[in-house]
């Protein structure tokens, strides 16, 4: 469901993770019209890897994996607003990078299942009365 606060919740988590020493946090917004190539390019930018001269998808995968495995710190990658499932291998995310995590937000439980997430958290909308109370408390 859109508009229930998935991105806001993960933004809060992102900000907390940024305060942790020796943890790198990468945020990638996927959106409805995204492709593997766009996601690879976004990831490469976040990790300071130049893929502008690389057209071969599999070579890009190798370079991305190698660069992420070189990171000496733990890292967390947030993939926000996924509209379709895709193979993480094709993105360039290493299978088993010790201490590293992937967080994704999506409107679809099916996408979570297709991507074999370990934990799925359904964010429920709050009741109108609760929303109004929260609004009044925040803005008055």
TrEMBL record:
SUPFAM superfamilies attached to this UniProt entry: P-loop containing nucleoside triphosphate hydrolases
Alphabetical list of Pfam families matching this protein: NB-ARC
Protein keywords: Plant defense
Domain NB-ARC: 1-136
GO biological process, any: defense response
InterPro entries referenced in this protein's UniProt entry, alphabetically: NB-ARC (IPR002182), P-loop_NTPase (IPR027417)
Gene3D superfamilies: P-loop containing nucleotide triphosphate hydrolases
Any one GO molecular-function label of the UniProt entry: ADP binding
Keyword rRNA-binding: no
Signal peptide: none
Domain of life: Eukaryota
Keyword Membrane: no
Matching PANTHER family: OS12G0206100 PROTEIN (PTHR36766:SF64), PLANT BROAD-SPECTRUM MILDEW RESISTANCE PROTEIN RPW8 (PTHR36766)
Protein name: NB-ARC domain-containing protein
Originating species: Salix viminalis
């Amino acid at each position: 469901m859109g508009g229930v606060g998935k991105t806001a919740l993960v933004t809060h988590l992102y900000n907390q993770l940024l305060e942790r020493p020796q943890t790198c946090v990468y945020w990638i917004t996927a959106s409805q019209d995204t492709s593997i190539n766009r996601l690879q390019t976004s990831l490469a930018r976040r990790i300071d890897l130049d893929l502008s001269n690389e057209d071969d998808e599999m070579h890009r995968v190798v370079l991305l994996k190698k660069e992420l495995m070189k990171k000496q710190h733990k890292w967390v990658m947030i993939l926000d607003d996924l509209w379709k499932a895709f193979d993480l291998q094709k993105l360039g995310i290493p299978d088993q990078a010790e201490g590293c995590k992937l967080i994704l937000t999506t409107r679809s439980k099916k996408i979570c299942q297709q991507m074999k997430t370990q934990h799925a958290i359904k964010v429920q909308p709050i009741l109108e009365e609760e929303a109004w109370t929260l609004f009044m408390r925040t803005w008055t």
